[in-house]
Amino acid sequence: MQAGMLLDSAGSLWRRFGLHMPPEGGRVMKSRVKTMPKGLVRDVIERDGGFCLLVLPGCMGEASTADHRADRGHGGSLVLNHGAALIAACGLCNGRKTHLHPLERTPLIRRGLIVAKDSTNEKTLARCKETPIETVEGERFYLISANERTRVEDMMRGDR
Asked: What are the strands, taking DSSP E only, across the chain?
């Protein structure tokens, strides 16, 4: 990359790669991105059977990350790092979900894999807890925690 291409007048290339523009003579520092604990991701993937629940076109099948059912915004609150707000996803589907056409989003909303954001993160989490997910096979579950889910039918009978 040419030196002149690294920084434009707005510093957009710096921001694009998560870098802060350094003060004169300072050093470049990477942004601190809030990430989920690896144990939480591992538990969510295991809870969901190790497979991507989104299953968008080109899906890799095997889950490699945990995806937020509700959009956290840019970094967002850690409140939504609760197991009820997370589903197993492959890296491809996790990246594609944010740029879906409304016709592609509708089935994911219907299946509870995308949950609308509420006025606060706490209310959004409550909405996630109340909204069951549906697998591709048609099984429906309430997500209780990062390592527990309960069939909707069992909850209706009180079997939890």
From this structure: 19-20, 29-30, 65-68, 86-89, 133-134, 140-145, 148-151
